[in-house]
Amino acid sequence: MLFNDSEYVAEFCEAGVTSFNEFIENYCTHLLDRNMADLRKAGHKIKPGAQMMGADEVVDEYERAKILLNDNAGDEELEESVNKMSDICSTIKKELTHLADAQT
Length: 104
Description:
Blueprint (H helix, E strand, L loop, with lengths): L5 H27 L3 H18 L2 H15 L4 H28 L2
């Protein structure tokens, strides 16, 4: 019912872009710093929104990153995860921006 309100949809999309910008910055920093506590905080904040949007790739890669840290993976594997998550988030942000623009 709320998704028939174009102003609400645009606002939701803009908030989503902001959230994903913050998440990917924190994800990159904390994963590469091997900071599990702050990586978990970043993941905890984004998971509900990602799940609500059906962005399971975000949750899956986040869970994989925690395993990489637990397994003391090499820097190359961590960089690979950062690149993959960056690509996923970039795609989501583009889609949200496109949807917001379509509402105006």
